[in-house]
Structures are given as C-alpha cells and as structure tokens.
Amino acid sequence: MKSFLVLVLIVIVSFIGCAPEETDTRTPPPPHTTRRERPPVDRSSSQPPADTLFGAAAAGQLDTVREMVEAGEDINARDDDGVTALAWASIRGRVDVLEYLLEQNADPDIPDEKGLTALHKACLFGNPDIIRLLIDNNADVNAEGPDGLKPIDVARRLNRVEAIEMLTQAGATE
User: Fold this and answer.
1) 26: number of Cβ within 10 Å
2) Which fold has domain 46-169?
3) 107: Cα within 13 Å, side-chain hemisphere
4) 120 dihedral zone (left: phi>0; alpha: psi -120 to 50; beta)
5) For residue range 61-101, what is the model confidence (pLDDT) as tens digits?
6) How far is CA 58 from CA 9, 29, 100, in A?
7) In 3D, which of 130, 44, 118 has the Cα closest to residue 79?
8) End-to-end alpha-carbon separation of the chain, Å?
9) 91 torsion bin: left (phi>0), alpha (psi -120 to 50), beta (else)
10) Alpha helix (H) residue ranges in 104-150
11) CA distance 108 to 119
12) Which long-range contacts (CB under 8 A, 24 or more apart) does 76-81 make?
C-alpha cells in the first residue's frame, strides 16, 4: 500500500510539474483606431516663481501685483510656457487680481504656447465667476486654440453646463 501511495504521489507531482503553462487564448482587443478626444491639459508649472508678476497673480497677492504693475512690469508679459499673469489669475480663480489686471488693460486673448487663452483655461478649470468676468471684459468667446479648439469646446468636453450657457449667450459658435 505504501508503494502504491508513493506511486500515486509521483504521478500527481509529475502531472502537475509537466502541465503546460496556462496561456491566455483570447484574442487581444484590436488597437484603438480613434482616441477619445480630451481637452488640452494645462501642464504649465504648478506655481510660477513667487517673485514674478505671474507668481503674484497665481497666488492672489493683489498688493504685490499692483506694485509690480505700477513699477512698470509688462502686464501682458508671458512666462516660459507663454502664460500671462491674467491667465494665471484665471487658472487659480483669483477674481480680485483678474479684475485689477483687466482694469489695467491686460489682454485676455493672448494665447500661451499651446494656443490656449485665459478663457480656454477658465473653461478648463470651470470657475463661473472667472468665465463671466472674462466674457464681460470682451474676451474672444470664439478664440481658436489647438486644432480649432474653442472655449465652448473645452466646456462641452468637461460638461461645464454653466460655462456653456454663458458662452452661448455671449455668441460662442461651434
């Protein structure tokens, strides 16, 4: 009986050890022929240097922004990524800074190096107060960014209903 058990054990071990590796016989999915379109991602640095107009605008430091503008800083200057102080205020939702920069005639339609304006960025981040302020200050609601992308396209892709309504009322087109 002992030899029988040893034999059975040897057969089982041999069978397990010799079994072919399990392979996935399913057919791999076909490569995607179309990619889901997404709005451009704003990959500009997370925070511009604090000692610049861009950094002060992004941080919401209105007094510093005022001092820099009064000292002669170019209100429409662009950082290394082509982003203006006004666009940084839009990205960060700094309404008071944005109001001040617009009062000082900052141009809301200067695109960054990717072709996105402050209104594109406001739609990307979805702050209705910023969007309204830009529209009320004549930001181009039909500004075309990369591949003809307009602010309303960004708002639609991200389902920003309030932004879509504001842009449509302001004359945004497909």
Assistant:
1) 6
2) 1.25.40
3) 11
4) alpha
5) 999 999 999 999 999 999 999 999 999 999 999 999 999 99
6) 72, 44, 13
7) 44
8) 85
9) alpha
10) 118-125, 128-136
11) 7
12) 76/106, 76/107, 76/110, 77/53, 78/110, 78/112, 79/44, 79/48, 79/52, 79/54, 80/45, 81/43, 81/44, 81/45, 81/112, 81/113
Q: What pLDDT digit, counting tens, does each position of 132-164 carry?
A: 999 999 999 999 999 899 999 999 999 999 999
Task: Give the Cβ contact number of residue 120 at 10 Å.
Answer: 30
> Cβ–Cβ contacts within 10 Å for residue 147, how many?
9
H helix or E strand, kind and range, residue 99: helix 95-103
Domains in the chain: boundaries: 46-169
CA 79/CA 150 separation, integer angstroms: 22
Amino acid at 108: P
Q: Which residue has the tokens 């992004």?
A: 58
Question: Can you name the residues that pair with 84 across neighbouring β-strands?
Answer: 78
Entry pTM: 0.72
Structure tokens of 46? 């997370």
Partnered with residue 78 across adjacent β-strands are 84
- DSSP for 41-84 reads P--S-SS--TTSHHHHHHHT-HHHHHHHHHTT--TT-B-TTS-B
Amino acid in the structure at residue 86: L
Q: How many CB atoms lie within 10 A of CB 135?
A: 22
Name the amino acid, one letter, at 68. Answer: M
